[in-house]
Design goal:
The complex is a heterodimer of chains A (509) and B (167).
Chain A lengths: L22 E4 L3 H13 L3 E6 L7 H4 L3 E4 L5 H5 L2 H10 L4 E3 L9 H9 L3 E2 L4 H8 L1 H10 L7 E5 L2 H11 L3 E5 L9 E3 L5 H16 L4 E5 L5 E10 L4 E13 L2 E7 L6 H17 L3 E10 L5 E7 L6 H8 L3 H9 L16 E8 L1 E2 L5 E2 L2 E2 L2 E3 L6 E5 L6 E2 L6 E9 L2 H14 L1 E3 L5 H9 L1 H4 L7 H4 L11 H13 L2 H9 L2 H4 L7
Parallel strand pairs in A: 1-2, 1-4, 2-3, 4-5
Antiparallel strand pairs in A: 6-9, 7-8, 7-9, 10-11, 10-13, 11-12, 12-15, 13-14, 15-22, 16-17, 18-21, 19-23, 20-22
Chain B lengths: L1 E6 L2 E9 L4 E5 L2 E7 L6 E7 L2 E8 L4 E6 L2 E7 L15 E3 L4 E6 L6 E2 L4 E7 L2 E6 L4 E6 L6 E2 L4 E5 L7
Antiparallel strand pairs in B: 1-2, 1-8, 2-3, 3-4, 4-5, 5-6, 6-7, 7-8, 9-16, 10-12, 10-15, 11-14, 12-13, 14-16
The chains are: A alpha+beta (509), B mainly beta (167).
């Protein structure tokens, strides 16, 4: 890559003062808490787990050096209780807090509380979280630093002025309610002649649903790809990227398959996108690991979507292709030790794919499923990471996110990584709660996925060809035979019937 | 008698036709021999079907079996293990939860006589209330859940006294 190693404005070059980190409270649960613990252990840093009583026997609790129970009406409420978590950190002698992802990881007030308590927040400072957490301010900041944003017309009550400005952007356009959500007051306009009518309808719908008739328009990117760039910033204006990830395969607006690097992406475009992300991180004097998300149109234009100021669920694919440990990098940056490498030292080795294993019913609109993990076998191998906090017997309730685990595999190239991922998914067995494991297998094996023909509507576009194919007769008989032999009543018939009776009906050639 | 198993949309019949020298089974008219039946218990195992090794994971000794075979998961439902054994129909002893949920109200207690279709429990699953009814006439020997209790799919929530002389 030809990006400069570190981009610096006229900012002080000194990194923030070093703060020793010897004991870290992990303000999270599940697979990510387990994963953070693993790196802390390797670094010789003690970890403190927090847990709600529903989670008391979770692997993140048993694997920690110290534990603190959080009190709350629900497990989620407990994990969102910032003051209680800060108090737990102080009581347990922790000098830093790692927020993981979700929960309080992008909560500026929490980052501030942590700092005010004299603890190190393993993440950016509160002001940066606030800047990037607000869609409007983040977009303006990006635009001001030369990061492309989708052309748009801001909300106005004047339909004529709105139509004129919108037409200047070009088509197709997406009309949205300023106060909107849930698709209300939203429409796609493909030609100038229908613009005014669509805006009028959207406005009256918005008025009806939200009591606010203002609408805005932005360029509608058709068949967009979701490309995001992993960045690391030292907090003093130094920033590098760890290449991009592709997260175009989504359902219910959430990613289910992520890969690094992206499925086919022209080299020049990749450099441009990664360069934009580094510019943004450097300009924000970003301190921590972070992700700059873009949408990429079929015409090669890309636009800033948002910046996630935390470790991302899909960070392992980046670790697999770069060989860097992102949690270690986060801790080192927070402790004032700077970036782990210079840009030219960061290289891509092979290809990595992550599958999110979720308790859900793909055939019923991916609705979350509940049950218990009654039988479990996890795949194993040198190029496989199975990130999870599962154990046999564990109940899967509606208390938490339906994601049970992440399967991450790497290979020398994309095709090899896909093959390995499919083999690992077939080896994985989770019985007792419905999961998307078999669906993911079909998805990875789909010709369009193998071809890298990805976009965010992949799942709905290929819905028909992603349905489970019927079993052939031989496979069906195998399944029926295994099922029958598990039935007590059938086993009894096989073994208990006395011989004279047993031979009745004996079949002869 | 044939064991009726539902896989996907279709019901299939599994019938024992011989036990020696190997177990021979007819599935929808196709014959198969088993030289190794595998373990009876839940878990991962292998069996030998028509001379070929079949590896599987399996749970569920009664009712619905969940299987992992050939890299795919299947739910196989036992249509009625005692079908054809008597003429009365609907002769189950157990009241099973059709899906995971919680008990909203308990209508009957152990010792109560019930008639077929009479409400035993009201449950709530996925924000929907449903009544679980007695599968046949009889006397309840156990109501295993109280108000507020949670349960899983196919969990036995109440049990009827077996019918005298019945199977």
């Amino acid at each position: 890559m030809s990006q400069p190693a570190v981009l610096r404005d006229a900012l002080p070059l000194q990194a923030p003062a070093a703060a020793p980190i010897r004991r870290v409270l992990i303000a999270n649960r599940g697979e990510i808490a387990v994963r953070i613990q693993r790196t802390l252990r390797a670094m010789g840093i003690a970890s403190v787990a927090v847990f709600h009583r529903v989670d008391a026997e979770g692997p993140h609790v048993t694997g920690a050096d110290g534990t603190v129970e959080l009190i709350g009406d629900s497990a989620v409420a407990a994990h969102l209780d910032g003051p209680q978590i800060v108090a737990a950190a102080r009581a347990s002698g922790a000098d830093a807090i790692h927020p993981g992802y979700g929960f309080l990881s992008e909560n500026a007030a929490f980052a501030r509380q942590v700092a005010e308590a004299g603890l190190t927040f393993i993440g950016p400072d509160a002001d940066t979280i606030a800047l990037m957490g607000d869609k409007i301010s983040a977009r303006q900041f990006a635009e001001a630093h030369g990061v492309p944003v989708a052309p748009s017309v801001m909300p106005t009550g004047d339909l004529d002025a709105f139509a004129a400005a919108a037409e200047a952007i070009g088509f197709p356009l997406l009309i949205k309610a300023a106060a909107g959500g849930g698709g209300k007051g939203m429409s796609i306009v493909r030609e100038p002649s229908t613009l005014r009518e669509a805006a009028r309808i959207a406005s009256s719908e918005a008025q009806r649903y939200f009591g606010d008739g203002r609408v805005y328009a932005e360029l509608y990117v058709e068949r967009p790809r979701h490309i995001e760039v992993q960045v690391l910033g030292d907090g003093a204006g130094g920033a590098i990227h760890l290449f991009e990830r592709e997260c175009s395969v989504q359902r219910r607006f959430q990613k289910i398959i992520e890969e690094a690097p992206a499925a086919p992406l022209p080299e020049a475009l990749r450099e441009e996108i990664c360069g934009a992300a580094v510019r943004l991180a450097a300009a924000a004097r970003y301190k921590n690991a972070g992700t700059v998300e873009f949408i990429l149109g079929t015409d090669g234009r890309f636009f800033f979507l948002e910046m996630n100021t935390r470790l991302q669920v899909e960070h392992p694919v980046t670790e697999m292709i770069t060989g860097l440990d992102l949690v270690r990098a986060q801790v080192d940056i927070a402790a004032g030790r700077g970036l782990p490498a210079t840009q030219p030292e960061i290289r891509v080795h092979g290809h990595a794919i992550e599958c999110r294993i979720c308790a859900e019913a793909p055939e019923r609109g991916f609705l979350p499923a509940t049950g218990a993990v009654r039988l479990l076998r996890v795949p194993d191998g040198p190029a496989i990471r199975f990130e999870n906090a599962l154990r046999q017997g564990q109940k899967v309730t509606a208390d938490f996110d339906p994601m049970l685990a992440k399967l991450v595999v790497s290979g020398p190239d994309r095709a090899a990584a896909i093959d390995r991922a499919i083999a690992a998914l077939k080896e994985l067995a989770i019985l007792g709660v419905e999961t998307n494991v078999d669906y993911l297998t079909r998805l990875l094996d789909h010709p369009a996925f193998r071809a890298g023909d990805l976009h965010t509507a992949f799942v709905s576009e290929h819905a028909e060809s992603l349905v489970a194919p019927p079993l052939d007769v031989a496979a069906r008989d195998r399944a029926l035979m295994v099922a029958a032999l598990g039935q007590r009543a059938f086993r009894t018939l096989v073994s208990d019937v006395p011989e004279p009776q047993a031979s009745i009906g004996a079949w002869r050639n | 008698m044939a064991l009726k198993l539902k896989l996907g949309e279709d019901v299939h019949e599994v019938e024992i036709v011989a036990r020696r020298p190997h177990l021979t089974v007819r599935i929808d008219g196709r014959l198969h021999t088993l030289s190794d039946l595998g373990q009876a218990e839940d878990g991962f195992g292998t069996l030998i079907l028509d001379g070929a090794l079949v590896s599987y994971g399996r749970i569920g000794g009664t009712g619905t079996a969940l299987l992992r075979i050939d890299g795919r998961t299947h739910a196989v439902e036992v249509v009625d293990p005692f079908e054809g054994s008597d003429g009365t129909g609907g002769g189950r002893d157990e009241v099973l939860a059709p899906m995971p949920g919680a008990v909203v109200e308990v209508h009957k207690a152990a010792g109560d006589a019930v008639t077929r279709g009479q409400a035993v429990l009201t449950i709530e699953s996925m924000k929907l209330q449903t009544t679980l009814v007695a599968p046949r006439d009889g006397v309840l020997v156990a109501v295993l859940k109280s108000e507020g209790d949670m349960f899983e799919k196919d969990e036995v929530v109440a049990r009827l006294a077996p019918v005298e002389g019945g199977q």
